[in-house]
Amino acid sequence: MGAYEDAFTRSVSDPEGFWGQAAQGISWYRPPERVLDDSDSPFTRWFVGGELNTCYNAVDRHVESGRGGQPALVYDSPVTDTLRRLTYAELRDEVARFAGALAAQGVTRGDTVVIYMPMVPEAVVAMLACARLGAVHSVVFGGFAAKELAKRVDDARPTLLVTASCGIEAGRVVEYMPLVDRALQVAEHPPSTCVVLQRPQAPAELTEGRDLDWHEVVADAEPADCVPVAATDPLYILYTSGTTGRPKGIVRDNGGHAVAMRWSLENVYDVHPGDVWWTYSDVGWVVGHSYIVYAPLLTGCTTVVFEGKPVGTPDAGAFWRVIAEHGVKALFTAPTAFRAIKQADPKGELLADHDLAGFRMLFLAGERLDPDTYHWASELLQRPVIDHWWQTETAWAIVANPMGIEPLRIKPGSATKPVPGYDVRVLTEEGDPADAGQDGMLTVKLPLPPGTMTTLWNDDERFVEDYFSVYPGYYFTEDGGKIDEDGYVWVLGRVDDVMNVAGHRLSTGAMEEVLADHPDVAEAAVFGVADEMKGQMPVGLVVLSAGVERDTAEISAELSAKVRDEVGAIAALKDIRVVDRLPKTRSGKILRAPMRDIADGKEIDVPSTIEDPDVLDEVRGALGELASREG
Ligand code: COA
Ligand code: AMP
Q1: How does pLDDT run across 47-94, given as a tens digit for each residue?
Q2: Residue 358: burial class (beta carbons within 10 Å; 0-12, 13-18, 19+)
Q3: Do 470 and 526 share a domain, yes or no?
Q4: Within 10 A of 542 (CB to CB), how many other CB atoms are there?
Q5: Which of 147, 298, 347, 382 has the most CB atoms around its CB within 10 Å?
Q6: Ligand 1 atom nearest to 502, measured from its CA
Q7: Residues 179 and 61 in one domain
Q8: Which domain, by its residues, includes 518?
Q9: Does any domain span residue 172?
Q10: 169 alpha carbon – ligand 1 mean position (Å)
Q11: Measured in angstroms, how far is the CA atom of residue 389 from the centroid of ligand 2?
């Protein structure tokens, strides 16, 4: 039996033994009494009775064990022309002081704190400071605007909000305070205090009595110590898109998460203490939480925090420069970033200017890795290019090539094999096991391993309903796929209406809500259509209210601006078309899948529940050139 098969078999036949051993990679104030408590499945509890502090493990522990002088974080920001290195000792001091500042504002164990920040080291400091106090952070991606921020604030009900005066997109300064002001005006449960990091590119006007200047509160603060918390206490909430406009608050615990992060970086990514590791994503996404912040710091690596883009800051050689300049061993990003580089520099000529001698591997996830992009990247880099599949819900890879255990043969288009801990099964729609090679629903037989979500914030019922009721005894991933004769997993994509644009998970429902709120719109449907660069792009179809006779191009432009204004620039709903009717089931549910298939130029299965199949011809007409693309 190979090392991978051995590890996988142990992880499913003896999860307590397997994860009990992995837990030794973490420092506990009190060791767990039980590794696994599955008595209330699917509310699986890991490391019950254990006490730890995640920030202690990510920062202080390394200083105490002699890594104080090693860079913990390298901040590389071509958009502000800044390079800053923070050693573990410096990071500990910054985090302890900011934690002290939060404590002085009344933040205490179990409180929630919303963090709405760009890619600056202070975002990482704020997250770790919350962890230090046993407070629960909820980071909201900076590309979301006021309405989405308000939804998250209302669900998380933070004691305090941490933000910055601005973010910097290529060629554009995004002022955060007007968005925060609006969000807190419409929120029903706004926090009474905001801590604002003033950035010189666009300092903000602070609101008296509510806003405090980051630097001032830190200057007055006493450093705070790490607060021991239960392994099962929440570390963070991260909102992700479901199909409705109401985001799901994924809850992550402290103990299981710390163990899984530490284990996965070494075993999946083959990255070890002292290595330089770079994840190009954003702290607002799960990839950022897990692999910009927690896994590399828990492991004692140097993590690169990059505030820029793969292209345009200043050119498509940015990735090669960062890898060479900081001695990056492995890079993790989404395939879209590589498609953007390929489009700007098809032959990868800019690579020649940089020495990538220390670079070992490229990891890609977040969306499908198309074989073209795989071949382009692996031929250019002459290094392993590793696809892996996971979700916000899991925090780490479900299926991957376990490079730290045993590199397996690559089959382009497949994310390789189930990672130890994840007993992946393909089920038919009826819930029967699928045959090898047969398409079905990707599920994971319970229990899920440590680090995966423990519930949805304030919503145990939705947690059970959305993920565990479709196939009792299994976690339903909402992705379709198959497992071939060799045990390789092929992910075919979402079976729900969630979109994946440039590796970002977006909700159709959130955009539909905004469209339907416009006085001229009676009904709206949004769906993702295939896009060569970004994987998918959103397209909207709207039915106008009776009697509206305005110019439809004008209405579409207004709607597009409204979505950008309320959901955020990241929503990028630029293609909105007017139709007379939308396809619906007889019970009135909008059928997005056949519209998506028409736009993707695919054969459509006309659903038997459709009220009037002729509507699909009208949709085909409205989609015009999109519908005539090759599938
Ligand atoms: N704050 C404010 N606005 C933001 C933002 C943020 N944090 N992130 C993105 N936006 C804006 C962008 O500026 C853009 O605005 P525009 O319409 O005015 O140009 C819009 O949201 C859409 O962003 P995006 O889809 O990212 O397109 P882009 O043209 O800015 O960049 C890529 C294209 C390919 C360079 C970029 O999508 C990328 O690097 N993707 C890699 C994937 C990735 O990081 N995934 C994260 C999960 S792993
Ligand atoms: P998120 O929760 O934002 O990380 O998005 C998770 C979704 O992204 C998954 O459910 C998949 O649909 C998609 N995804 C992530 N990684 C991959 C991959 N390697 N291949 C195909 N789809 C992926």
Answers
A1: 999 999 999 999 999 999 999 999 999 999 999 999 999 999 999 999
A2: middle
A3: no
A4: 25
A5: 298
A6: 37
A7: yes
A8: 502-626
A9: yes
A10: 8
A11: 6
